[in-house]
């Protein structure tokens, strides 16, 4: 069975996938990545480019002896996996783009990248992590898994936050959507405050072989707000 690689988003980490590992792990091997500067790899220097993150993940998979794999990217991780398709197309089987888009500037985001940069400098890493993590949940700080998600986000340093924002701001994959040959699934929560429908629609219409799943009543962290629905969608599509 083809292994599934999970790439988290900005200020995320592999621990965010704990609600998926049991269900998905019953069907296949799951590799949850910690990007440099985030999660369990917060001691590593972060990268200031999406391409740099993509090449780092590919290098990690090669060093562990993985061949072909299915690939899922969440949020900034969705940008990273789009870039991975460009650099490792022959090894990627199926592609899942979850709560993400093809434009790093994120039009319609809850605040601009520039505002996030300025507030991160003013407020510091911990306050920034907790504030931004709250936007990922429909009920913000009252979300059931907010506390755990915020604790993971807090592991990001000020330098990693700045690097991640720079990486997103400097990236666009719009011109390459038509080159994605993999069977692809786009997953989006209909109350997402980070990626509006316009971004999701660009992926859905721009990638040649794409299915779309819109999950109602949740925001940016569908896999935490409605894990049973998310896991069922993912398993059904991957095995289809």
TrEMBL record:
Domain (AB hydrolase-1): residue spans on this chain: 4-231
Highest taxon, organism lineage: Bacteria
Record Pfam families: Abhydrolase_6
Gene3D superfamilies linked: alpha/beta hydrolase
SUPFAM superfamilies: alpha/beta-Hydrolases (SSF53474)
PANTHER family referenced in this protein's UniProt entry, alphabetically: MONOACYLGLYCEROL LIPASE (PTHR43798)
Protein name in the entry: Pimeloyl-ACP methyl ester carboxylesterase
Organism: Yoonia sediminilitoris
